[in-house]
Amino acid sequence: MADRKGGSGFLVHTIVVAIAVWVATQVVSGVSASGPVPLLIMAVVLGLVNAIIRPVMVLLTLPLTVITLGLFYLVVNGVAFALAAALVPGFYVAGLWAAILAGIVVSIVSWLVGLITG
């Protein structure tokens, strides 16, 4: 039973992720966007990477994630963020550490905005 119909759920999610990515550009040194359009494109591309590529990465790195008690999952999120950033013109990530931190920030901000907006 979904309370959102059609593309409005996708639009809301994209805006929430774009806000979270913007916060990451403000908080994480080494992450930047040249304007609002790259932020929106990054939100869409990040959603696609998280839906298509990240599950494969999670599956392939599961033994390492178990050995590190889940900490390697942060690296997987960072790699997914860096991959999405590499595909978006006008969006820049300085390195893996910046991508890992930005992934953490995006996750936390998305979760908080989701709590507030329902």
Brief rundown of the structure:
This protein is mostly helical. The protein is built from 6 helices and 2 strands, in the order H-E-H-H-H-H-E-H.
Order of helices and strands: HEHHHHEH
Strand pairing plus helix content: what structural class? mainly alpha
How many domains would you count in the coordinates?
1
Average pLDDT for all residues:
91
Instruction: Give the neighbour order of strands across the main sheet.
Output: 1-2
Query: What is the gyration radius calculated from CA atoms?
Result: 14 Å
Spans where pLDDT lies below 50 across 5 or more residues: none
Measured between the Cα atoms of the first and last residue, the distance is 15 Å
**What percentage of amino acids are in beta strands?**
5-15%
What can you tell me about this protein's structure?
With 118 residues, the protein is mainly α. The chain has one domain. 75% of the residues lie in helices and 5% in strands. The chain is built from six helices and two strands, in the order H-E-H-H-H-H-E-H. It has helices at residues 8-27, 36-52, 54-60, 62-67, 72-87, 96-117, and strands spanning 31-33, 91-93. It has a two-stranded antiparallel sheet. Helix 1 (8-27) packs across helix 2. The longest helix is centred in the C-terminal third of the chain and has 22 residues, at 96-117. The protein is globular, with a radius of gyration of 14 Å. The model has no long low-confidence stretch (mean pLDDT 91).
